[in-house]
Each structure stands twice: as structure tokens, then as C-alpha cells.
């Protein structure tokens, strides 16, 4: 089960659309998403240096690899939404995907090396899952060159 943007309260719909409109779709995504027309920009990998200098976040190598292999042809936007949680923390998933049915999925991507920040990211991911159970949440970890995905959805 997932939530459609239209199922959200009007105020929240406006916030989600405003955040999503600030992010362009990667090349090769579907274009028939109603009311979501992103600004065209070159691929994130092509402008990695320029965008980073301007303060704009771009996907790292692992996140780009995940997009290329698992989100191809989907309406996937990098760090498009930020969730404010009850404990005062914020969480921004790596990829926000709008499915063909108009449902929202949040994907968190981690590389093969266990960094100290991974535990903090997992805590924030789990907290967001608890506070926003109507969304589909995906935790993807790269191991031995492949991604192991765990999908969390409320039925």
C-alpha cells in the first residue's frame, strides 16, 4: 500500500509538489506524470563538479549506480523530499520515486562500506517509516557489486 499525492491533505499536497518541482527528472524517465513537470537539466553525473561548487547536491557514485540499474524509466528524483519528524529531526531519502499509479516510494541507498553515518541514517530511516507508514520505504545496500533491497510497506 502506498499513498497518492491526491490522498494527502491540500496543504501537504502543495508542499510535496513544491519540493518535487525544484528537482528535475533524470534523463530517460517517463513523462506522463500528471501535474509534475520538472525543469529540464543535464544528467547529475555530467554536472557533478559544477553543481557541487554551486551548493547543489548530486548523487554519489553508489546512488547513481542504483538509479541506473533499479530506477531506470521511473520518475525518480534525488533528495526531493525532507521529512520533519516528531523528535525534531529531519530525514531526506536519497531517491523519491513516483510510481505509474501515482504512489510515492522513498529509497535509501548505502554502499558496501559500513560508515559511522550509516547507523544514524538507519535510525532516521526507521523513524520516518514509523511516522509516515502510508509510504513505501526501500532500504538498498550494495554488497559484492549487487544491491540487496528490503521493501517496507504497510498493507
Which characteristics define this entry?
155 residues; alpha+beta; Trna Endonuclease, Chain: A, domain 1; 5-stranded mixed sheet; 4 helices
Task: Give a description of the structure.
The chain is of the alpha+beta class and 155 residues long. The protein has one domain: Trna Endonuclease, Chain: A, domain 1 (3-Layer(aba) Sandwich). A five-stranded mixed sheet has the order 1-4-5-6-7, with helices on both faces. The protein has a two-stranded antiparallel sheet with strand order 2-3. The mean pLDDT is 82. It has helices at residues 10-21, 48-53, 61-70, 116-131; strands at 75-78, 83-84, 90-91, 95-98, 104-110, 136-143, 146-152. The chain is globular and about 45 Å long. The chain is built from four helices and seven strands, in the order H-H-H-E-E-E-E-E-H-E-E. Helix 4 links the parallel strand 5 and strand 6.
The multimeric state of the shown protein is: single chain
Structural class: alpha+beta
Low-confidence stretches are none
Our estimate of the beta-strand percent is 15-25%
Coarse shape: globular
Helicity, as a percent range = 25-40%
Strand order of the largest sheet: 1-4-5-6-7
Summed up, the domain count is 1
- Write down the CATH topology: Trna Endonuclease, Chain: A, domain 1
- How far the N terminus sits from the C terminus, by CA atoms, comes to 5 Å
Question: Got a strand count?
Answer: 7
CATH class: Alpha Beta
CATH architecture: 3-Layer(aba) Sandwich
**SSE topology string:** HHHEEEEEHEE
Amino acid at each position: 500500500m502506498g499513498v497518492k499525492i491526491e490522498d494527502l491533505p491540500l496543504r501537504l499536497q502543495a508542499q510535496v509538489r513544491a519540493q518535487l518541482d525544484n528537482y528535475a527528472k533524470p534523463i530517460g524517465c517517463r513523462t506522463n506524470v500528471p501535474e509534475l513537470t520538472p525543469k529540464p537539466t543535464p544528467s547529475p553525473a555530467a554536472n557533478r563538479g559544477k553543481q557541487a561548487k554551486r551548493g547543489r547536491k548530486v548523487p554519489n557514485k553508489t546512488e547513481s549506480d542504483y538509479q541506473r540499474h533499479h530506477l531506470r524509466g521511473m520518475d525518480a528524483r534525488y533528495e526531493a523530499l525532507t521529512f520533519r519528524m516528531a523528535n525534531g529531526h529531519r530525514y531526506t531519502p536519497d531517491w523519491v520515486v513516483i510510481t505509474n499509479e501515482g504512489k510515492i516510494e522513498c529509497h535509501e541507498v548505502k554502499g558496501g562500506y559500513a560508515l559511522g553515518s550509516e547507523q544514524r541514517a538507519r535510525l532516521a530511516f526507521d523513524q520516518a517509516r514509523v511516522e509516515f507508514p502510508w509510504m513505501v520505504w526501500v532500504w538498498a545496500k550494495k554488497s559484492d557489486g549487487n544491491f540487496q533491497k528490503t521493501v517496507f510497506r504497510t498493507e
